[in-house]
Amino acid sequence: MEIRFDPIANKSGEIIEALMSSPDMPDDEGVLFKIRLCIEEAVENIVHYAYSHEDGWIIASTQRLGDKVVISLRDAGIPFDPLAVPDPDITLPAEARQIGGLGIFLCKQMMDSVRYEYTDGCNVFTMEKKFNND
């Protein structure tokens, strides 16, 4: 499934629901919880930060490949590699930690693969999650 949202301002919920209702998603509720959390983090980051002070677009897609689902988000916003941000030090108390970065850190922990590339003038953020077909 692939869908384009243009413009994206105030459409985080719509984008998230479109991805989560894709026929490519697994039936496993535990896996879906992890996928939803990571999709919410990635979509919110794009909607709120990718285009600075202007509105933009996003192409959201899902693909089922055997025992995994691949979620891809493409935007033409400000180039930004969220994976280049250092992981937060989760051993520190919450009040001593820097703001930001925890969501992407959780995505890296919950998904089987998380990739970023900047290609053809676009940010492409891709996540993969394996699941049991049984």
Description:
The protein is α+β, with helices and mostly antiparallel strands. 30% of the residues lie in helices and 27% in strands. The protein has helices spanning 12-20, 29-50, 102-110; strands at 2-5, 58-65, 68-75, 113-119, 122-130. It has a 5-stranded antiparallel sheet. Strand 4 and strand 5 (122-130) form a beta hairpin. Helix 1 (12-20) packs antiparallel against helix 2 and helix 2 (29-50) packs antiparallel against helix 3.
Fill in the keyword field for this structure.
134 residues, alpha+beta, 3 helices, globular, five-stranded antiparallel sheet
Strands, helices and their partners?
Layout: E1 2-5, H1 12-20, H2 29-50, E2 58-65, E3 68-75, H3 102-110, E4 113-119, E5 122-130
Antiparallel strand pairs: 1-2, 2-3, 3-5, 4-5
Query: Mean pLDDT, as a whole number?
Result: 92
| Percent range for β-strand residues | 25-35%
- How does the helix and strand content classify structurally? alpha+beta
Distance between the termini: 23 Å
N-to-C SSE string, H for helix and E for strand = EHHEEHEE
Low-confidence runs of at least 5 consecutive residues: none
Share of helix among residues? 25-40%
Spatial shape: globular
Q: How would you sum up the major sheet?
A: 5 strands, antiparallel
Could you give the order of strands across the largest sheet? 1-2-3-5-4
Number of helices: 3
Give the tally of β-strands.
Answer: 5
Radius of gyration: 15 Å
